Amino acid sequence: MKKIILLVLCFFGSVAIRAQVQENDYVNKFKDLAIRQMNQFGVPASVILGVAIHESANGKSKIARNLNNHFGVKGKNQVKTIRSAYKSYDSPDDSYADFIRLLKDKPGFSKLFEKYTSYNHKAWVKGIQRGGYAQSSTWASQVLGIIQKYRLDQYDKQPLILTDSLVKDSVANQEIKPQQSNKIYRVKKGDTLSGIAKKLGLSVKTLMKKNKLKSTQIKPGQKLSY
After folding, report:
1. Does residue 219 or residue 166 have the better pLDDT?
2. Burial level of 158, CB count in 10 A (0-12/13-18/19+)?
3. Does the pTM exceed 0.70?
């Protein structure tokens, strides 16, 4: 009897270990993308990864596998293999970009960018729930649980604690440190301004404003700052 109990415990233990490995594999696959988005837009990488893991079941859900939808965003899809009310994407990267676009464009979420820093993941998660991202009242606590379980906050940008020497160095370097230039996107054949904005995680209005465009018409070879 003891041998049977031991075998059962070993079996469930191995299942739990395999599940954790799969989730860590997901993080390893997408953490660099989440960090890039954090550095560009200010959303903590831990929040991006935590929401993606929760909504896509670590990339194993039907909509993640068939629609490349990792954030449970609803909308039109071009996939005929399954019938779904969820939006389809050409790649998971597009899904990640659309998540940022959704946060920036929706009034319930856009205020979070000015209100919270990229290392206050708890405030971001609770703010996203208050903005109406999910109907479940336990959504925020579930996402925060995922962040804690896999220590996703280790990927967040931490605040710099300035010492006297760092303050002096910072002041001294301000005059000689060149300003970072905007990133450039070169328009390809078949590109549309809305499609480019989606890829970059920006709204069309923001992209037009950055480039002082009077219309949405663009041409191949044109350079767009973002």
Report:
1. 219
2. exposed
3. no
